[in-house]
Design brief:
Helix content is 27%, strand content 24%. By secondary structure, the protein is α/β, with parallel strands linked by helices. It folds into two domains: 139 residues, ATPase, nucleotide binding domain (Nucleotidyltransferase, domain 5, 2-Layer Sandwich); 108 residues, ATPase, nucleotide binding domain (Nucleotidyltransferase, domain 5), CATH 3.30.420.40. Helix 1 runs parallel beside helix 2 and helix 3 packs across helix 7. The longest helix has 19 residues.
Length: 277
Amino acid sequence: MQALGIDIGGTGMKAAPVDLETGTFLAERMKIPTPRPAVPDAMAEVVQKLVAAFSWSGPIGITFPGVVTNGVIWTAANLDRAWIGLDARSLLAKAAGQEVRVLNDADAAGVAEMTFGAGKGEPGTVFMVTFGTGIGSALFVDGALVPNTEFGHLEIRGKDAEARASERAKTAHEMSWKQWAKNVNEYLEHIEALVSPQLVIVGGGISRQSDKFLPLLTGLHARTVPAAMHNDAGIAGAAMAAHPGSAAPGSAAPVRAGAGANANLGTKGFPDPGLPG
């Protein structure tokens, strides 16, 4: 089984066909910069280009960096406000030339990591965080996803957490690893106070350099580990959501949460269609 995963980010839009049995890419991923301004029509054109680049006609899943409920976008902190209230599933299906599934980007990354990566077989409460243009979050309880948490917008010292601890904030403010790790540490302390995870999985592109900041984190109760799939998890999770079989956040239609390697999650990787998401 295979599907095309498209991962929309504040900086870039990435895609690759994915083997749903293993979570691996079947071709080299393609990345196109996110249009500026990041308005719906311009971004839909990029989706069209990504689908065409792979001559794809099978299942397609698309992530979005914000709250997604039944294909409708409700927050777009790092993209244009024109997305808010928009039926993204209809717009992007038109661009792709076929039905698509749309879900929160960190939720997709989290499901991929829980199926194939650092969270595979992990019981209890698991928190996945992605550091990039913003901060994405995914929360799991005994393998079941709590969708659309968006904990990157927790207020810390009067600002959104992602204004202090995202990868973009590190770059914009020219922080050293030690300075940035201090902000990440404070953010994760707030997360622990809220949800008490046993495991924290750190994802996003910066997770490839986890050896430079994870050892600097102190005082946390949860085991904190880098994502095994790094910045590819969003694409893999999007593809998993696209396949019929179970329900994905942001989609009223059934999609499959994974196969084969997903034995530990079963069909709990994505919530039922009737739940928010």
